[in-house]
Amino acid sequence: MAEDLIEREGQLSMLEAALVDACGGSGRVALVSGEAGIGKTSLVERLAETHKTKVRVLWGACDSLFTPRPLGPLHDMAAQIQGEIQDLLQTDSNRTRLFSTVLVELKRQPCLVVFEDVHWADEATLDLLRYLGRRITQTSALLVLTYRDDELDIHHPLLSVLGDLASSNATRRIPLAPLSEKAVARLFRDRSLDAAALYRQTGGNPFYINEVLASQSKGIPASIRDTVLARAARLSLSGRAVLETAAIIGMQVEPWLLEAAAGSEADAVDESIAAGILLPQGDGLEFRHDLTRQTILELISPQRRPVLHRLVLDGLRSYPQTRKDLARLAHHAEASGDHQAVLEYAPAAAREASAAGAHREAAALYNLALRYSDDLQPGVHASLLEAYSRECNLTEGQAEAIAALRKAAEIWIELGNSLRQAEDLAVLAVALRNNGQNADAEQANRAAIEMLSALPPGRELGLAYRVQATMCLSKRDYQEAISWGERAIDLLSNFPDEYITAMAHVAVGSAWMFLDYPYGCAYLDRQLEQGLRMGNDRLIANLYAYAGSCSAELYQFDQAERYLADGLAYTSERDLDIFSRYILAWQAATHIQRGRWEEASQLCSQLMQASTYPAISRITALAATGRLRSLRGDPGVGSVLDEALEIAIQTGSLQYLGLVSCVRAEAAWLVRDPERTRAEADAFFDLAVNKRHPWYTGELAYWRWKAGASVTLEDWVARPYALQIAGEWRRAAALWEQMGCPYAQARALAEGDNEAQITALNMFERLGALPAVEQIRSALQARGVTKVPRQPKRATLQNPFGLTGRQVDILALLIQGLSNAQIASRLHISPKTADHHVSAILSRLDVHSREDAAELARQHPHFLDQ
Predict the structure, then answer these.
(1) Which domains can be identified in the chain, with CATH numbers?
(2) Has this prediction a pTM greater than 0.85?
(3) What pLDDT does 438 receive?
């Protein structure tokens, strides 16, 4: 196939065009996807072979180990580059420095950079790809990523990286489809084989077809697996033994390691090369395809497999370079059943992975070591559990983090180490809170404080005080949060810990925002300046997140937008995605209030398609999604708001209960259900009043009033809502206008005279607020107002999902199976605009894929007849 590349001319042209752009100084990313054996490598190899005299080619592959080695492809490339990158990989754990050095390298000269099989990529490699992808236009490089799209489930970590890259105009998607029956017939025109039957058997997969072509068997093999076995069957016994050893080593096979593991039989490797199963690659060998290697692995008996892994492990240990390849050593130690070797290599490999930012791999390696905890001393076991928990927290594995910390604390109890037990309980409280289990968090941290208070004071007690300040802030107990935070700060002046002290200041400043917003803002701004001088990324991300979310909750949207935008830029630059998602959720909520609903829709779609993430981020994302859908009259409101309420109740915190209750009450009102509106608003109204929360109290009181309840308000309640309840709709509308909240302004005008209501109607229509449009139009007509503005565009109202005319056009093209690039070309818009429209359509239709959207549209054919 490498010679012919049948039915790949278009994809090759796209790659060559992207390479031309890159060589011209505007770097590009190419996402080459398709099932195993579809020809991704052959396509990219042809590109590299054609242009190798014009550009530097850097090639790295991801490994299909139990736990991939951190930055494996970069290690492959570093050997080709030499110099600083190779040195940094060996000696420096500063990931920012390493990534920036790679970026500089890609600016030096035009280059083709290939990351192969990124569906197997470790977390650090994915972070590197995200980092490079966001900056690729600054280089002269074409960054090519190949991956199997049929192996990506909804939780696969590669999906979020692809989502980031796909939103850039520099990205080119190049999916590879199976060959057509006509192409298969061309390949077999000189062979006495039934091409049609072969097409049905192989599905047009080029690898499978090549296996048949290479097979010397007569007729079509019973299965593709048989075609691989047919090649292997022609080898001698020694040749088979060497091939099995090579399969254990991996896709890339070092000749010296093969010789060390296979012994005197190693010379028989020439048979596999002659049979085309192994191919020379530089100074080493590689399997022609991973499917071939996997088939060979299946042939190895269960009794022989661990023996081969042991031989490979011994070979790796004997060579100075691979002796440092800890993840690979841990892989073969596990497969060989050597528990002591696992305990030697897995924790060390985990620490190496963590330092490289590969936290998922670090967690997996710690978990591997913990499988053999019976062989560990109790203190070592507890320390491993703590390390495992830290990595799980960073990868959003809250449940695993919590379980590990609980177990570690139990071990410290058995050992009589109250200090370590209490510290674990304080850290456990943070994990529980992030998981929405506030009551359990409160209990754990109170126990930690009680235990630590009986011991000599130290940083551990300062940590527990700081955590308690955060817990009080979450409950919106402002004075208590300040008190506990100041106690932490005072104590830590004698036991310095910059991070814990700074986080105590974050809690204090955030609490002050609710009591005296300008003072709290100035307080946090000072901490932000100091944090930037310290250079602690996690602290700065926390500061932006707290300042932005508290400002948005208090309807201080100008400040909120500043904090959230700066915070998103900071966390995205450093790939701190856990913080980025929290900030994005509050950005979506802010966009809705500001009337920027298309931007909010894109963010909500992005957030809802992400894999699992902490409850404190998910609640806000669900609330924003539910609010936007209800305001627009889109489907799928109930499901997201039910999930939001379930998580919010679990927290028991006004911070989330107030937010979700306000959204649910409004959603009930918009479907004209005043009884449910009253019930939703009543549910946590007293809690909001008791905490003296001006905005949650104001909004819930407003919905109670709309539903017919008698409402009396204190003077601290948010002014716009108080004015509306008092019937002063003009003043309320003026305040909402000053705050830059057009929907709330129109809602206030809708409570006025006919002229005000017509103004509100026009504003609602511009926003696309269909339920409000219908309500106010009905009210005007009921009062006999004859000069009611025209109905919204037919393209918007004739379908139940509120699609715009442009979105209906794009939906029609989705039914035809067009890609975003093809849609952009057909409609004369940019690919990025097409991407945004498709994301908005998926959100409006409440589906997760283009195929689901197309199928739903087929069920409602009147969508397209407008």
Answers:
(1) 9-177 (3.40.50.300), 182-230 (no CATH), 235-324 (no CATH), 376-456 (1.25.40), 805-864 (1.10.10.10)
(2) no
(3) 93
